[in-house]
Amino acid sequence: DSGVTQTPKHLITATGQRVTLRCSPRSGDLSVYWYQQSLDQGLQFLIQYYNGEERAKGNILERFSAQQFPDLHSELNLSSLELGDSALYFCASSVTGARSYEQYFGPGTRLTVT
Amino acid sequence: GESVGLHLPTLSVQEGDNSIINCAYSNSASDYFIWYKQESGKGPQFIIDIRSNMDKRQGQRVTVLLNKTVKHLSLQIAATQPGDSAVYFCAEIIEGGSEKLVFGKGMKLTVNP
């Protein structure tokens, strides 16, 4: 168990809908990262938040947004969903500033868009 | 653009053998590399890391080798066990001051009893 929790575990929704994925980082970790894992694209970095502020952005679509709250949990919002958004979405956390960039991954949320 | 990739998509080994998983990276400015293991139905799990000022780093049954000349990274697993069966990813930090990881496509290791 990495200490990172994600909810829900599975999510099935229709095209055009909007969903919110939730992540709670490990206790003490200030950074939260979101990744998308699909069969054809592998693990793709989406976005990073550090202590409530956006710190780095990757291949995140404009239809997607994220935020980190004062209690450090994070939410990833996916809107106008398309079939191609079906994937595993992972959240990871780390202690930014430490010597290691080791990130701890949650169990993921499997999103299926029908 | 920068990319991290793996030479072999699949690898099957016998239990007890040593396994070597290879990875190529393209950005010579990368200064930190990590190997992750992902078991079926789980998130990636940190295995070992290495900084670009090192050539070799050892952990428990695992060794990572870095060859900066040819931009090659490898993960060696000694006495491979069935529990080592997983997909292995190498990842690269390519932006200074950010922990933005670029992952390779992954390689599936199957350990046969």
Strand content of chain A: over 45%
Strand content of chain B: over 45%
Proportion of helical residues of chain A:
under 10%
Shape estimate of chain A: globular
- Parts with pLDDT < 50 across at least 5 consecutive residues of chain A: none
Give unreliable regions of chain B as ranges: 1-8
Please state the average pLDDT score of chain B: 87
Largest interface: A-B, 25 and 22 residues
Largest sheet of chain B: 6 strands, mixed
Please tally the β strands of chain B and state the result: 11
Main sheet characteristics of chain A:
7 strands, mixed
Query: What is the number of E strands of chain A?
Result: 11
What is the helix tally of chain A? Answer: 0
Radius of gyration of chain B: 13 Å
- In quaternary terms, these chains amount to heterodimer
What is the end-to-end distance of chain B? 41 Å
- Bulk shape of chain B: globular
Helical fraction of chain B equals under 10%
Which structural class matches the secondary elements of chain B?
A: mainly beta
Explained architecture:
- The complex is a heterodimer of chains A (114) and B (113).
- Chain A has 114 residues and is mainly β.
- Chain A is 0% helix and 53% strand.
- Chain A is built from no helices and 11 strands.
- In chain A, the strands form 2 sheets. In chain A, strands 2, 4, 5, 6, 9, 10 and 11 form a 7-stranded mixed β-sheet that branches.
- The model of chain A has no long low-confidence stretch (mean pLDDT 92).
- Chain B is an all-beta fold and 113 residues long.
- In chain B, strands 2, 4, 5, 9, 10 and 11 form a 6-stranded mixed β-sheet that branches. A 5-stranded antiparallel β-sheet of chain B has the order 1-3-8-7-6, with no helix packed on it.
- Chain B is globular and about 45 Å long.
- The interface between A and B is medium-sized, with 25 and 22 residues.
